[in-house]
Amino acid sequence: MSPSLNQSRPSLSFFDKLRALPLALFHKLGSPRWFYWISGKWLPWLAVLTAVLLIGGSVWGLLYAPQDFRQGNSFRIIYIHVPASMLAMAGYVLMAICGAISLIWRMKLAEVAMKCAAPIGAALTFVALVTGSIWGKPTWGTWWVWDARITSVLVLFFLYMGVIALYEAFENKQAAAKACAVLSLVGVVNIPIIYWSVEWWFSLHQPATLKIIGKSTMAPSMLYPLLVMMIGFYCFYALVLFLHMRSEILQRERSTQWVRDLITGGNGN
Amino acid sequence: MQFDSLAAVWSMNGHGPFVWSAYAIAAVTLLALVWAPLHKQRRFFAEQRDNERRRQLSQRTAPPSAEIANSSERTVS
Lengths: 269, 77
Known about the structure:
- The complex is a heterodimer of chains A (269) and B (77).
- Chain A is mainly α.
- Chain A has one domain.
- In chain A, 76% of the residues lie in helices and 0% in strands.
- Chain A starts with a helix and ends with a helix.
- Residues 1-6 of chain A have low confidence and may be disordered.
- Chain B is mainly α and 77 residues long.
- Chain B contains three helices and no strands.
């Protein structure tokens, strides 16, 4: 045996293992069965946390937060409008990232996540648009204006609907996932447009009340319930995404042994 | 508490209908998002168990040897 062959199979050093760790994690995360199992463990906790945050935050915002000196009580819609809008946008970015992962690495779980993110995002965008419209009536005197912020969020809604429709239009689901991934990646350009629309164009829509950098322009007594609702909406998003993904995984893997075992085992959790 | 009575909570100085309808629509939509996958999953398990039961039943009533006899019977009648 030549010495060069011997050298080509060295024992794995610590750093080699460290380098292999992300790949191992990636493979594990990519396994639908593992995801089904681990998400099942998290679901009850996530459900309780979400319920407590959303109910607590709503009661706080509706009954205990002081009313706005200019907008009166109508401003209480902020506690669902802002978190729903945030998640509608964050959900789109998540969908596009999952689309990219499924395109590049062909990760099955990312494809499932991308498919499931679309209806959830569409529903949250719908909530953002409707609550915004209802808030607009007493505040601006109109249900709807074709300004930059509102129109770009409407485009976001259509992008979500486009992804859903595109997926359903293909008979071949592999091709469907590829097309949806491309569409969601192209649509990401809309996200910064939504975000900065209130600064780039003249708008009836008020600028962001919360800022990541710099001071928020909101009194703490109004801000705290909003923060509770935002965390609640993030938890809600995770919860609902997990539920949709689990259902989708079962459908896709229905002929595998582990799903057969679940079916005959009797516990359909 | 910002309101003196239940009626005040309901009316919110005239903004009540807007605030409450916004919250109601949001609540219904969010609940639908939770309900839909749970319903789909429950239906999936019910369907699959049904299929499994039917498959087992057909195996028991019609073993491979009896299947030919059965089919000929069906063509006669």
